Amino acid sequence: MQDIKTYVDQDKDRFVQELIELLKIPSISADSNYKKDMLKTAKAVKASLEDAGCEKVEICKTPGQPVVYGEKIIDSSLPTVLVYGHYDVQPPDPLELWDNPPFEPVIKNTEIHPDGAIYARGACDDKGQMYMHVKALEYMTKNNELPCNIKFMIEGEEEVGSEHLGWFIENNKEKLANDVILISDTGIISKDTPSITTGLRGLSYIEVEVTGPNRDLHSGLYGGAVGNPINILSKMIASLTDENNHISIPGFYDNVEELTSEERGKMAEAPYNEEEYKNKLKIKDVYGEAGYSTLERASIRPTLDVNGIWGGYIGEGAKTVLPSKAFAKISMRLVPNQDWKEITQLFKNYFDQIAPDAVTVEVKPHHGGYAYVTPIDNPGYQAASKAYEETFGKTPIPQRSGGSIPIVSLFEKELKSKIILMGFGLDTDAIHSPNEHFGIWNYLKGIETIPYFYKYFTELKKEE
Ligand code: BES
Ligand code: MN
Ligand code: MN
């Protein structure tokens, strides 16, 4: 497969241009105003799969956003790889913090990306990483290098919790049958330290509404005598964690899997520099649960975060008002053995319990998902490891990530396969933030590495 490097080198400008075109469509799944753009993106993905040599490409309707499916079956006795990715993106707000409009991609050179990076919403998460697979397939079909069967399932609801994908999987088990699931929707430690994600955290996402008086009140006439929902919500949020940043919800830690000191020791060997970490984020100090390192806090420990909080007057100038309502969106990242449905219930019970009689609270669960951890002694992991070795010249480090892809644990349960998280992004790519970008080096490296996965996976499966 010597010529993949040459192929990428010759066609790199076209690969970048094609991705830029895809990034121009605002496929924001959270906002129903963009429904047309979701379909437009699905159609663009479909066309790209057809161009790359996929057969039976279709846009499958679901009760939510459409799923794009395609396959290239060369021989039913050969192994089958199912590629999963998502074409939806996070809302780009706050718009004023972007240096270029989020759906008008620009290429800029930076210290980390001297070969240029594409700046646009979805550049790394996940259009760029998903499209690497389309281009890798194009190379393999054009050059007769596809050693096994391949299926693609690209969805449009990942960023809002993949609510209807479970339905799609349950109804299409045969169509989706595979020997391994391959996903590029995570990252590597750095350009010279490749890593493979071996774990993802689970999630419980909740919205709370705190109601006080039946209307906004004059804060002079009523302030001090009537409970202020924003003051009360702030106190309630504060009491969700203690002085050690442990979560105070009774029962929250009951099923949390504790790592052995060996496992923690192994984790601590991963390259990591706290000074650099702080400098990159322009923070004077890190902050988190007592007794755990930064890497541990951000991967193997459960957490609770307020994602947004609002209520009252936030317009220009001052308005003296005691608001009737206050709101917050709260997420909890979960670890193996924590059941997100149980945790959601525990949260609800506790939140109801700590609310003073001055207010009523409503707890509205949004979505959730289970954590995932994969062993490394399987052909999928080994094939990915050898593929990175081939193109990075180094064995990748297995590492658990703090992010979530809720559908991954469902894949394992319903399709009974291992999931290989073969990402190429960097933590600094600003996914979900203003100025999201994806290094062109990373993008091309991904296209170059992926075909080796198929080669080694097919070989290792034959040996089994
Ligand atoms: N691709 C990310 C998850 C991710 C990124 C995992 C980097 C590991 C490293 C995915 O698109 C995502 O953002 N997931 C959401 C969950 C979803 C339910 C909104 C998340 O983790 O917040
Ligand atoms: Mn993603
Ligand atoms: Mn995301």
UniProtKB/TrEMBL annotation:
<dbReference type="InterPro" id="IPR002933">
    <property type="entry name" value="Peptidase_M20"/>
</dbReference>
<dbReference type="InterPro" id="IPR051458">
    <property type="entry name" value="Cyt/Met_Dipeptidase"/>
</dbReference>
<keyword id="KW-0645">Protease</keyword>
<dbReference type="Pfam" id="PF07687">
    <property type="entry name" value="M20_dimer"/>
</dbReference>
<feature type="domain" description="Peptidase M20 dimerisation">
    <location>
        <begin position="200"/>
        <end position="357"/>
    </location>
</feature>
<dbReference type="GO" id="GO:0016805">
    <property type="term" value="F:dipeptidase activity"/>
</dbReference>
<dbReference type="InterPro" id="IPR011650">
    <property type="entry name" value="Peptidase_M20_dimer"/>
</dbReference>
<keyword id="KW-0224">Dipeptidase</keyword>
<keyword id="KW-0479">Metal-binding</keyword>
<protein>
    <submittedName>
        <fullName>Dipeptidase</fullName>
        <ecNumber>3.4.13.-</ecNumber>
    </submittedName>
</protein>
<keyword id="KW-0378">Hydrolase</keyword>
<dbReference type="Pfam" id="PF01546">
    <property type="entry name" value="Peptidase_M20"/>
</dbReference>
